[in-house]
Structures are given as structure tokens and as C-alpha cells.
Specification:
By secondary structure, the protein is mainly alpha-helical. It has helices at about 5-20, 30-40, 55-75; strands at about 5, 45, 55.
Length: about 80
């Protein structure tokens, strides 16, 4: 069974990935998750009982990777 993540859970998971790359200096907000979806970087895998979108781990990883360089560049957190 594939684990599905709410937007809040997705933001937390993506923040862990970004923080690992930036010594804790970068995070991903729930708003960023919504923007990823709106811009076509993140595909909805289903809906929760309240009609809110759910995402797979693989889709989150792809969206985080697709948006990483731009986000880190805008916050001046690119790796040396």
C-alpha cells in the first residue's frame, strides 16, 4: 500500500529534505506545496475524507527536486 501525505505532512517531509541540504536553513511551507501543485510540479494522488489533496512520496520527491535550485537560489542557500 502506498502512503499518501496531506499538504501539511508533505511540507514537513520536504522541509526535512531541504534542511538536510542547507544545515537547517531552508524549509517548505504548506503554501509552497500548493504552489507546486498549481504550477504542475506536484500531482494529486487522491483526496482525504474532507476533499483535501493527498500526495505520494515519489511525487513529493520529484516536485522538491524540480523546485530546489530556484528556491535555494532565491534564499541564497545554494551549496558552495
Amino acid at each position: 500500500m502506498t502512503t499518501l501525505y496531506t499538504g501539511t505532512q508533505a511540507a514537513h517531509l520536504a522541509t526535512q529534505w531541504r534542511a538536510a541540504l542547507t544545515d537547517g536553513r531552508a524549509s517548505v511551507s504548506l503554501s509552497a506545496i500548493s504552489h507546486w501543485r498549481t504550477r504542475g510540479h506536484l500531482t494529486i494522488a487522491g483526496l482525504d475524507p474532507h476533499g483535501r489533496p493527498l500526495y505520494t512520496h515519489a511525487a513529493l520527491a520529484q516536485a522538491e527536486l524540480a523546485t530546489r535550485s530556484g528556491a535555494l537560489r532565491r534564499t541564497d542557500l545554494t551549496q558552495d
